[in-house]
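Hi P.,

Sorry for the delay on this. The queue was packed all week, but I finally got your sequence through. Input first:
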Amino acid sequence: MAGIALAIGLGAPGGFADWEPETLRAALSKARETLVTVEFVSGFEGFGQSREIPRKLSGMVVSPTGLVMVMTNVEVMESARGSLSLSRPEKVQIVFQDRSRRKGAYIGVDADLRVSFFEVEREADAEPIFEALELATADLGVGSSVAAVRLLPEEYEPRLEAAFARVSAVLEKPRRLFRTQPVLAQFNGFPAFLPDGRVVGFFAPEEGGDRGEEALAILTGSLSVQPAALYLEFIRRPPTKPEKGWLGILMEPLRRDLAEAWSLPVEGGIIVTDTVRDSPAEKAGLEAEDVIVSLGKRPLAVNTYADLDWFRQQVRNLKPGDAIDLEVIRGAAGYGKRPVEHKQLTVTLTQAPPSRTEARTLSFPEIGLKVRELTLDFILANRLPDGVGGVVADYVERAGPADIGQVKEDDVVLSIGGVPIQDLPSANQAFDALRKKKPSEIILHVLRGQSRLFLKVTPDWE
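Then the structure:
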């Protein structure tokens, strides 16, 4: 077919009789009008430098008003040694396939789905005139075929490449997605079309992550079609600031053997192993060893850790201020040490605390160290003591003073030059005082795992 580089997925059974030339043209025509290049610069400060980083990413026009979706978190740049926080994109240009350019603006990002939004700027009174992808909420089953279309760099001709795949599995948890054969890893971040030209979803890693997890997901085949329905709400209301509901519990799935041992006649549930101090869960009266068996009068069939991810996503899909009703069984885990009670609790969610990828950062170029604020997810993942303060070593410059002094990424810095550190402002204040004195050595007190270390760093004050 003229004007298209076409790859047929050889691993898919049964051929692709439902993709006649005319139906493929519908997808290609839509892709030709809606797949764009987003050019922008992001600011980076640290390690003795301050510079702008030019970037080019593929995006898709998803509304007639000129909303553009990019399937990555543009405020974070992954590297082999960790993730770098970047400033909000500036000097945005939207480049269409005919090489015409329009000025654009950055709107925001959803860190959970790892999707960012831009918009094409237009005159205030201008009518919405942009061709946009049409998203479908149609379901897919095993054997359904999709076409993937991606935009190639400007030096390629033709600019579009397409491939076919069939759905090989439909997974429901932690959220619904469609695995395909072949995997089509090279189409990561691009739409999956139905034969009628509508987009049924987008190729993306099954679980977003940092520090190379996305690349690992692609290499291991954990790349799937994420249903378009996941993105509809963000297209209607693009995220300027993420609003995520937060419950504030540590939890385990109620395995069937535990349900039997505790004589719980339920299909599943969530065991509360602990509550976070001052969290909505604690304020509503949830306690350790409570078993949550229903959410909003809907029984919880939670038996595995994948089910826990599903429950966590259900909560984060709600907004701060939303109230949820929980049915809780208390006392079952005590083997008769206390009476078994059934309780109805209403929890009012609050804004989810910032995650590691959303944390603010601060750079100390004199010692080649960037630190970030201590976030709750990091505290819980590393089993840090309750009430711990400090900042986290986010990036250690290779062969810099901190690196030579044996500082490691993810060390928790407890004090700088003998001054206790509680947060980013106190770290900044402590280091500013050192800049005035210019000592030849600085002692960093760090927490690494369960060990406390005192590390000597020789700063470069020049």
